[in-house]
Amino acid sequence: MYTDGKLVTAGEKTRLHSDPFGVRKYLPHRSYQGYTLFSPAWGDREYLIDMRGLVVHTWEVTHSNVAELLPNGNLFTHNCGSWLEEKTPDSKTIWRWEGNGDLVAPNHHDFWFGGDIVVSLAAKHEPAVRGVYQPGTEPDSMRTDVILKINRNKEILWYFSFSEHVEELCALAGYPMPIPYMHRTRNGSFEPYGPSD
Predict the structure, then answer these.
(1) Hey, which of 3-7, 37-41, 134-138, 165-169 has the most confident mean pLDDT?
(2) Residue 96 phi, psi (nearest 5)
(3) Is 132 exposed, middle or buried (0-12, 13-18, 19+ CB in 10 A)?
(4) How far is Cα 181 from Cα 23, in angstroms, rounded to an integer?
(5) pTM for the complete prediction?
(6) Could you give the CA distance from residue 103 to residue 9 in angstroms, rounded to a whole number?
(7) What is the mean pLDDT of the chain?
(8) Residue range 45-69: average pLDDT?
(9) Distances (CA, A) of 81 to 85, 142, 151
(10) What pLDDT sits at residue 104?
(11) Rounded Cα gap, residues 124 and 105, in angstroms
(12) 71 DSSP assignment
């Protein structure tokens, strides 16, 4: 809970100081000195805390659960499957990618490489790959994961679509084609399970 500029994490009796804020135990001689950036699940704020657990900076975000502090002091984050963005220390958005007509915006696992390159696990809606499912069990369409490499101009430099390599991936994982046991795990995706599942 965020209260009066500090993150409340546990009761006062377990603190290093009298405030009900901070960490439970801090041994400077056994710790790497620095800061920790963390993201509450689907929250509206990213937190940078010091070694005592006190909040030293926050960024306003929209439903984020992953963030990365960039060397320039900006924050790289995403909106839980809707967009990637870079924010200045005062929470102003200076770059955003929301996918394109063919690709759904990022799912998760997004990384900023250097000054210009972003690698993201995004999704693509497409017809179900024939030959993967038992006849009569195929969905009409599926959501396929895609690894993307994009630049600051939002140009896709490279991508790897898992559906385009499903036969190779099944062979590597030891799954027969078609996969005899499928289980709907979430919207648009299926996962193989053993015969007793």
Answers:
(1) 165-169
(2) -150, 140
(3) buried
(4) 47
(5) 0.69
(6) 39
(7) 76
(8) 88
(9) 12, 16, 19
(10) 63
(11) 9
(12) T
Provide the total of helices (H) and of strands (E) in the chain, helices listed first.
1, 15
Helix (H, G, I), strand (E, B) or coil at 14: helix
Sign of the alpha-carbon dihedral angle for 110, 104, 73, 4: negative
Distance CA 146, CA 49 (A): 34
Tokens of 194: 């053993």
Give the count of beta carbons closer than 10 Å to the beta carbon of residue 120.
23
Spatial neighbors of 120 by CB under 8 A, at least 6 apart, are: 84, 97, 106, 109, 110, 111, 147, 148, 150
Domain extents in the chain: 1-97, 99-197
- Which fold would CATH assign to domain 1-97? Thrombin, subunit H (2.40.10)
Q: What is the pLDDT of residue 116?
A: 76
